[in-house]
């Protein structure tokens, strides 16, 4: 069982990461990642919706007929998004203003219905919740990485405007990393999002390939040793 | 009834019903809190542009008007009036620059009846971060350059960004955003100047 959870964690965070590997939810991913703060806000909101929808979908999986499962999942997800939007509007008003249109757009994040269909509809609640948590964290991590790259290149800061998300104390989080006269404006514009995303995916693939090569070398060595003892 | 299609349809309707009831409940529970947040936000903004006036008094003396050619929006916008000894000494106008770089820019401007801008703030915008978002006070104090600027016939041409021969700085790499904001504030000031009857209209905003 713990093996299973470990597998789920690596899948969500790395090998089947919704942002880098499944390439799901690119619309909000690319649109809001111009600062770390926005990325964090959308990441948390997505994580909450994913967790809620996976839990509910898993709980009702035995009562839902196959033919109408998709509309039911969509209803569940849309309800969660609306609930999150209302709650954010009520309790974190500044963040609600900052994220604006991207909260309702979480509905269209295919990563969420993807997990509902591929995992939660076939598995018990606990693993489904864990899967949602890992997928959500994986998605948030990609959002944060993209946000950090773009904010750093585009305006030379990190955590700019974090106080809108976390409260006045977070103003102290703002770091002015580079103080240049001219910033790399492209990073802040949509093309920069695509380029940075491409680089991130390339980086992940490079790491995977290096790992694979190392493993091949290792197995080759052990095999050599095995034959050695037999001879 | 035993037909699978009608059974599925009923089930789907049931799920929809449950979802709607839960959402209705949440909406009912959060509505007062959301209204409170909106009001607090509006009060804070009013205080920000016109610190001398009592916010509640402004909220009570408010008119809602639609003037797309002046205020840039096809839907009603609010004008708050600040009276001292019966006469209006300042208006706080919600106005919109329809021609921002990416969409409309909503502004709030405090103006005296003769067309002197007291203060201007950006309410919402979708301008490019790092370029056009210097219209936020959080990013730059550019909005302060409108304080105590008056519009009159003689200086209309100077109400423009420097690139267009005016008095207002543009931003490096972004001219469209400040141009839109300068024009919107200019239009608003002219609107107030040329429509003195705004002071007399009965207050007609919905209660806050």
Automatic annotation (TrEMBL), chain B:
- Identify the domain of life: Bacteria
Q: What is the lineage of its organism?
A: Bacteria, Pseudomonadati, Pseudomonadota, Gammaproteobacteria, Alkalimonas
* E.C. numbers: 7.-.-.-
What protein does this entry describe?
Answer: Ion-translocating oxidoreductase complex subunit G
Kindly give the SMART domains that the UniProt entry links to this protein: FMN_bind (SM00900)
Which species expresses this protein natively?
Answer: Alkalimonas mucilaginosa
Needed co-factor(s): FMN
EC main class here is: translocase
* Keywords from the UniProt entry: Cell inner membrane, Cell membrane, Electron transport, Flavoprotein, FMN, Membrane, Phosphoprotein, Translocase, Transmembrane, Transmembrane helix, Transport
């Amino acid at each position: 069982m713990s093996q299973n959870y470990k597998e789920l964690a690596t899948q969500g965070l790395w090998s089947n990461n919704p942002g880098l590997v499944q390439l799901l939810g690119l619309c909000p991913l690319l649109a809001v990642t111009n600062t770390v703060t926005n990325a964090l806000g959308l990441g948390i909101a997505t994580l909450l919706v994913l967790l809620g929808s996976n839990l509910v979908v898993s709980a009702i999986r035995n009562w839902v007929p196959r033919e109408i499962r998709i509309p039911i999942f969509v209803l569940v997800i849309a309800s969660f998004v609306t609930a999150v939007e209302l709650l954010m509007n009520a309790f974190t008003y500044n963040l609600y203003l900052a994220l604006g249109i991207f909260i309702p757009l979480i509905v269209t994040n295919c990563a969420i219905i993807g997990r509902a269909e591929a995992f939660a509809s076939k598995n018990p609640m606990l693993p489904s919740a864990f899967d949602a948590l890992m997928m959500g964290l994986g998605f948030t991590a990609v959002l944060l990485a993209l946000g950090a790259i773009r904010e750093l290149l585009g305006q030379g800061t990190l955590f700019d405007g974090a106080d809108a998300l976390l409260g006045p104390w977070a103003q102290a989080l703002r770091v002015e990393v580079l103080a240049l006269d001219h910033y790399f404006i492209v990073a802040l514009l949509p093309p920069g999002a695509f380029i940075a995303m491409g680089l991130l995916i390339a980086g992940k693939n490079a790491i995977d390939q290096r790992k694979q090569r190392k493993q091949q070398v290792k197995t080759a060595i052990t095999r050599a040793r095995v034959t050695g003892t037999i001879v | 009834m035993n037909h699978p299609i009608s059974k599925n349809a009923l089930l789907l309707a049931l799920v929809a019903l449950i979802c709607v009831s839960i959402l209705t409940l949440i909406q009912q529970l959060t509505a007062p809190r959301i209204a409170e947040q909106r009001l607090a936000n509006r009060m804070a903004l009013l205080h920000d542009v016109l610190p001398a006036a009592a916010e509640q008094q402004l909220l009570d003396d408010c008119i809602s008007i639609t003037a797309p050619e002046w205020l840039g929006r096809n839907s009603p916008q609010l004008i708050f009036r600040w009276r001292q000894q019966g006469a209006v000494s300042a208006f706080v106008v919600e106005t919109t620059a329809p021609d921002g770089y990416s969409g409309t820019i909503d502004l709030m401007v405090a103006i005296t009846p003769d067309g002197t801008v007291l203060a201007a703030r950006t309410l919402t915008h979708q301008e490019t971060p790092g370029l056009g978002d210097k219209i936020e006070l959080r990013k730059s104090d550019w909005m302060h350059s409108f304080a105590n600027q008056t519009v009159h016939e003689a200086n209309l041409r100077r109400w423009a960004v420097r690139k267009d021969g005016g008095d207002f700085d543009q931003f490096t790499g972004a001219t469209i955003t400040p141009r839109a904001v300068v024009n919107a504030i200019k239009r608003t000031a002219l609107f107030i100047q040329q429509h003195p009857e705004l002071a007399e209209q009965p207050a007609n905003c919905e209660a806050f």
